Amino acid sequence: MYDIAAIRAQFPALAAGTAHFDGPGGTQTPLPVIEAVTNALVQPLSNRGDGTPGERNADTIVTEARQAMADLLGADPSGIVFGRSATQLAYDFSRTLAKTWSPGDEVVVTRLDHDSNIRPWIQAAAQAGATVRWADFDPATGELTPDDIRAVLSDRTRLVAVTAASNLIGTRPAIAEISRLVHQAGALLYVDGVHYTAHTLVDIERLGSDFFACSPYKFLGPHLGVLAARPALLEPLQPDKLLPSTNAVPERFELGTLPYEFLAGTRAAVDFLAGLGGLGANAERGRRERLASAFAAIEEHEDTLRAQIEKGLSAFEQITIHSRAAERTPTLLLTFDGHSTTDAYRYLAERGVHAPSGSFYALEASRRLDLGDTGGLRVGLAPYNDADDVERLLAGLADFLNS
């Protein structure tokens, strides 16, 4: 069901011979996505409308992209908001939501998160006079539990911002249970799903998120940000916007002209993913059903490779693996006794293996792990990785540690 050779053949960048373990920072791009971006640009294209071919093309692209993302996330297409990045969307929504906060209100952020789901809320809280409370995680296990969130909730909590999966160590908190606690406290839940969406089929209703953000370039698409929320939740929110721009939802939150070519690529990325589970483009199967089959296959493939990596790494006493949570993505953070992770990154890169080193904007998590601002070597899997990639990684690390 999962033909890795056929899948890899769809990625022109892989022809260069590099083994890419940099997927958590952005995946490589398959041909259908590249072609969709190109086709959008070679056809007539203008601002959305229904009077000219260019207007109709633009409108169709937006409509199809909203539906594709709704299918991917289990959302309502009328609640899909596009932005330049997940960071930009977090800033936009933090400023908008902060208009409803007052001095004494509380906002919860976590030590596990990427800074894009921390700093915007801290800064917005400061502007509103609200108090920031921190939820910690256990650096020994990498776990952020519902009890960690419960400990910082109160009747003044207005919003909790938490990641669905750590981009640094892969930890997947129990978001559905956290959601129940947050809503019992009368607060809203903003979920950073950027890393999570690349590895697991999202169901925002099951997760219970009020706002869920992700980035298509982490799951084979273009550089873009997407936020999903219930349209009824978006209706009362009033973002700063230009006077002549529409006040309709979700367009109210999309500032300026949308990048139509990237939206076309986003729809193509979702369709490409939907074809990876053995159901192909069977018209009798809905996209959501095909995506469920595909992500089951992707998870099985990535878990197999992760087990291969972990077995290989267990032979090295000099390596510490900081990714230890029971539920986590196929993303490993490594450090080495007596060796710099930056040196390891450069050594591997010279041998055609890309596993970057850093804290990857998860600065609070890196510091909590006692890794300072330096972080570690991050090894992340994507749907196009294969067993040969893993063997090259393990061989490169063995040579590095023995050099």
Put simply, the count of helices is 14
General form? globular
**Low-pLDDT sequence parts:** none
Q: What is the succession of H and E elements? A: HEHHEHEHEHEHEHEEHHHEEHEEHEH
As laid out across the biggest beta sheet, the strand order is 2-8-7-6-5-3-4
Oligomeric state of the chains in view: single chain
**Rounded radius of gyration (Å):** 21 Å
In what range is the share of β-strand residues? 5-15%
Helical content, roughly?
25-40%
Structural class by secondary-structure content? alpha/beta
Structural account:
The protein has helices at residues 4-8, 31-42, 53-73, 86-98, 119-128, 146-150, 175-184, 204-207, 231-234, 260-274, 287-313, 341-350, 363-368, 387-402, and strands at 19-20, 80-83, 106-110, 131-135, 157-163, 188-192, 211-214, 225-229, 319-321, 331-336, 353-354, 357-358, 376-380. With 403 residues, the protein is an alpha/beta fold. Helix 2 runs antiparallel to helix 10, helix 4 packs parallel to helix 5 (119-128) and helix 11 runs parallel beside helix 14 (387-402).
In short:
This protein is α/β, with parallel strands linked by helices and 403 residues long. The protein has helices at 4-8, 31-42, 53-73, 86-98, 119-128, 146-150, 175-184, 204-207, 231-234, 260-274, 287-313, 341-350, 363-368, 387-402; strands spanning 19-20, 80-83, 106-110, 131-135, 157-163, 188-192, 211-214, 225-229, 319-321, 331-336, 353-354, 357-358, 376-380. The model has no long low-confidence stretch (mean pLDDT 97).
